[in-house]
């Protein structure tokens, strides 16, 4: 019997019956390739992998600088109060300067502004290192750390690139925002741990020095991808984002949301210290960030349903409800072991809320001013974090750490009330 030659498809087999002629085709059939997942579809776009790698490298120091500054100054001057005051001054300076830098980025382009702004910020970092090392007067620490406020908002610039590349593809933009939020959470998980390790294992200035090197290297790689950079809008006539319809109440809501993060961090550290496990506070807080990171990635893989304005209050309501879990765990058990999973679950509402808020910022920001709009959102969060930290520290010290856990829930509820109030007013003022 002749055998079919190798490399050829088998010939159809003829089967003859009394009534029919059946042709059985044994030709191999190939299944169509599986459709790529939502995150994979983002990174098939040219240049996206390169600017994302640079973005992540430059973003990691954001979680390193504050911790490094506190450890470095406290080790050299023996005062946590001084260290906290210096970092608070840097935070206030960033809130004032960052929108101005972002406005220049929108007008003249990311590479043209971000690189010199980063270099100027690193000069402030070097000045701080020298002032600490050579025991300069305390006021020089404030001035040097304030000079780092020109650090560009790398997360906002990355989101602006996604918005430029994806255009009106709302599903893809939702996934990109979720990825960026997960990256934020990852950097805030790894950054403080890396900073503490470097400062402890090497020398007190090691965390700040490493952060500066990573920031410059990541910014160089990020800005080198000019093909994905949004075009500058030098002659835009659009109104500032702060005056855009719906933006002020959204920024107020982000201010309240920042209060959730700031108060939870301080109160958790105070609670762990009261239990005699202060060193474990970082691990417990990392669980909250881990829960947010995982939830953000899952949320980004889902296709959003309904308008963003309707999803936002639901996300805030979920965050307010889940933030009650740490309060319940601390009040009923007083155990750090029980608090840890409560923070993990509570963190799962953070990323979906932030992703939805970011999408709203992008929708409400006038064309040509996206970097400024995103930076205003970050400024609102930073202001809320500062207020939440101060309020959380006051409650933990004057009342108790357990009582302080009521602050994150109250701040989330306030953000929800602001969103509902604006939604109600908008519905009843439409013609």
UniProtKB/TrEMBL annotation:
Keywords: Membrane, Transmembrane, Transmembrane helix. GO terms for molecular function: transmembrane transporter activity. Pfam families: MFS_1 (PF07690). InterPro entries: MFS (IPR011701), MFS_trans_sf (IPR036259). Gene3D superfamilies: MFS general substrate transporter like domains (1.20.1250.20). The chain crosses the membrane at residues 50-74, 80-101, 113-136, 194-224, 278-300, 312-330, 336-361, 373-396, 402-425. This is MFS transporter. It comes from Streptomyces colonosanans.
């Amino acid at each position: 019997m002749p055998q079919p030659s190798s490399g050829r498809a088998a010939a159809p087999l003829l089967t003859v019956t009394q009534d029919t002629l059946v042709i059985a085709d044994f030709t191999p059939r190939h299944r169509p390739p599986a459709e790529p997942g939502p995150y994979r579809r983002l990174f098939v776009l040219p240049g996206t992998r390169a600017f994302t790698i640079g973005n992540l490298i430059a973003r990691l120091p954001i979680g390193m600088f504050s911790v490094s500054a506190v450890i470095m100054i406290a080790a050299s001057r023996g005062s946590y109060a001084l260290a906290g005051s210096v970092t608070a001054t840097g935070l206030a300076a960033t809130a004032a300067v960052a929108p101005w830098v972002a406005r220049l980025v929108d007008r003249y382009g990311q590479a043209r502004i971000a690189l010199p702004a980063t270099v100027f910020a690193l000069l402030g970092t070097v000045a701080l290192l020298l002032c600490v090392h050579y025991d300069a007067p305390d006021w020089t620490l404030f001035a040097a750390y304030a000079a780092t406020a020109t650090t560009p908002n790398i997360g906002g610039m990355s989101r602006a690139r996604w918005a430029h590349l994806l255009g009106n593809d709302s599903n893809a933009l939702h996934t990109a925002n979720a990825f960026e939020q997960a990256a934020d959470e990852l950097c805030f998980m790894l950054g403080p741990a890396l900073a503490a390790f470097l400062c402890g294992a090497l020398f007190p200035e090691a965390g700040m020095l490493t952060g500066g090197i990573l920031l410059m290297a990541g910014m160089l790689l990020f800005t080198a991808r000019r093909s994905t950079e949004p075009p500058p809008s030098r002659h835009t006539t659009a109104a500032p984002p702060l005056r855009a319809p719906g933006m002020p109440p959204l920024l107020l809501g982000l201010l309240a949301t920042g209060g959730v993060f700031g108060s939870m961090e301080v109160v958790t550290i105070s609670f762990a210290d009261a239990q005699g496990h202060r060193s474990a506070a970082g691990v417990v807080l990392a669980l909250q960030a881990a829960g947010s990171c995982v939830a953000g990635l899952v949320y980004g893989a889902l296709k959003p349903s309904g308008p963003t304005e309707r999803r936002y209050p639901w996300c805030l309501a979920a965050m307010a409800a889940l933030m009650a879990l740490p309060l319940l765990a601390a009040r009923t058990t007083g155990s750090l072991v029980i608090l840890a999973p409560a923070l993990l679950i509570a963190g799962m509402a953070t990323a979906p809320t932030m992703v939805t808020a970011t999408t709203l910022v992008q929708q409400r920001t006038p064309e040509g001013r996206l970097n400024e709009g995103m930076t205003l959102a970050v400024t609102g969060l930073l202001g809320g974090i500062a207020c939440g930290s101060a309020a959380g520290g006051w409650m933990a010290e004057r009342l108790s750490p357990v009582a302080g856990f009521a602050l994150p829930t109250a701040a989330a509820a306030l953000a929800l009330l602001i969103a509902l109030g604006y939604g109600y007013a908008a519905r009843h003022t439409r013609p």
